[in-house]
Amino acid sequence: AIMQWAGGLVPSVDVLGLVIVADAPGRLPRPLRDLAQVVSGGVPRTWNVPWVESWRLGEPPALNDAPREVRRLVDELRVILGPGAAGTTNWKEER
Predict the structure, then answer these.
(1) Distance of CA 10 to the CA centre of its chain
(2) Has residue 93 been placed in a domain?
(3) Alpha-carbon dihedral of residues 75, 80, 86, 91, nearest 10 degrees?
(4) 72: domain range?
(5) 57-84 pLDDT, tens digit each
(6) Is residue 55 part of a domain?
(7) CA distances for 8 relative to 3, 4, 12, 38, 66, angstroms
(8) CA-to-CA distance for 91 and 88, rounded, in angstroms?
(9) Is the dihedral of CA 15, 16, 17, 20 positive or negative?
(10) Does residue 38 sit within a domain?
(11) Does residue 86 sit within a domain?
(12) Is residue 92 scored above 60 in pLDDT?
């Protein structure tokens, strides 16, 4: 998909970046880190999100309980997309 976007084959698609989500607790194995590095070179920005066990079990994510990396991702997307952008208000935020 990234290669198609970079090649201009999907002109109606805007790629903001790549979100890499850990598939298990701990550090990514070297082959996955290397692949992520190669793939991330083709997108404007990359975000890494750690493993969150409760999300795997189906618990709805709450932004105030999310890891720092997730909060940073959401903050950056809000800036990139601007106020009122479609789809930016679906996070459950507890105040």
Answers:
(1) 20
(2) no
(3) -10
(4) 2-6+14-81
(5) 999 989 999 999 999 999 999 999 987 6
(6) yes
(7) 9, 6, 9, 19, 35
(8) 7
(9) negative
(10) yes
(11) no
(12) no
Does pLDDT of 16 surpass 50? Answer: yes
Tell me how many degrees the CA angle 84-86-87 measures, rounded to the nearest 5: 115
pLDDT of residue 76: 95
> H/E/C letters for each residue in 52-73?
CHHHHCCCCCEHHHCCHHHHHH
Pick 95 or 89 by higher pLDDT. 89
pLDDT confidence of residue 84: 67
Report the number of distinct structural domains present in the chain.
Answer: 1
Among 70, 3, 51, residue whose Cα is nearest residue 91: 70
For residue 95, the model assigns a pLDDT of 36
47 beta partners: 19
Cα(52)–Cα(66) distance, integer angstroms: 8
